[in-house]
Amino acid sequence: MMRYEILPLDGGLNAVLQQKIDQKTKPLGALGRLEEIALKVGQIQNTLTPQLSQPTMLVFAGDHGIAESGVSPYPQAVTAQMVHNFLAGGAGINVFAKQGNMQLRIVDAGVNYQFESHPDLTDAKISMGTCNFLQEPAMTMAQCKQALTVGVELAKKEVDAGCNVLGFGEMGIANTSSASCLMSVLCDLSLESCVGRGTGLDDNGLARKAEVLKQAIAIHQINDKDVLGALATFGGFEIAMMTGAMLGAAKHKAVLLVDGFIATAALLVASKLQPNVLQYCIFSHCSGEAGHRKLLDYLDAKPLLDLGMRLGEGTGAALAYPLIQAAVNFLNDMASFESASVSEKC
User: Which of 314, 283, 334 is nearest to 91 (CA)?
Assistant: First the structure.
């Protein structure tokens, strides 16, 4: 198995951070989850005065061979079309990233289309989409490791440029099928509890999707201990590359903003490779996709938002980012009882 060294958080400042939070001019715990976030960011950065620098959203795009088996109501061509939409500034993630002053980077991890160069597009294409995992593994083990390695390097590049908070999004028709299979296999859960409607399947489409995915899982016989085998068999290039980027971001002590079902499935893989990655994560929202809440529960994760969203693209992470800013700002700028000459509770 590939090795990824991620240090656990240093708890040396925990008590002092908590004291600083508790001494703000408010009743104990009155800022709720914001206090948890402030503590988390302070722990990650190992400082009493954390700063958020050059927040960046990485959106990984890739095509999936399993789309050939009718698991999505949309044609595969939509992946490339949406990448063009990202680059033109017209997608949901463009709007929300701009609102939060987040840098947006689109990564072609394996779209079945050859894009022209663009300043906001990173060409990291592994191949022109994955194979149909109903018939064969989605990718070779060499491709899987390549995608992971590139992801690690992309995260390092952002951190080296001054970024210390990274959000993760994706685009890939049929990638909820990959995420459902990864969740089912790696969490040892029934496929039925992991699969959902994706981009809007009706009841018949959902039944077909579940049957196709059950067949695929039965064919490959991957167990929950074979993490890279599961990723290579059922994953997408965008999921594998995002997994690597999460590992790389945590290795370099960045704050990770985790988006919805697909991004959490990538994190699931990352956590099986290196459990300490979870200590660097803030979970942005609970998706409307059926399996996401169960996956969050499996990871013992508490999402900040529950808006019924299921768009992907990193939109939930971008919407949650202002809450991270608010938590850091109150920790740094809110007066203490002593500095404001306010009496504490008797």
Answer: 314
∠ CA 212-78-315, nearest 5°, is: 95
Provide the residue range defining the domain that includes 233. Answer: 56-329
Burial-class residue 277 by CB neighbours within 10 Å (0-12, 13-18, 19+): buried
Q: Which residues are catalytic?
A: 313
CATH code for the domain of 184: 3.40.50.10210
pLDDT at 344: 79
Q: Quick one: the chain helix, strand, coil %, rounded to 5?
A: 50, 10, 40
| Residue 1 pLDDT exceeds 50 | no
Model confidence pTM above 0.90: yes
Residue 162 lies in a domain: yes
Query: C-alpha distances in angstroms, 275 versus 151, 156, 293?
Result: 18, 19, 20
Cα 145 to chain centroid distance, Å, stands at 19
Starting at the edge strand found earlier in the chain, the sheet holding 281-283 runs 121-123, 103-110, 56-62, 165-171, 255-258, 281-283
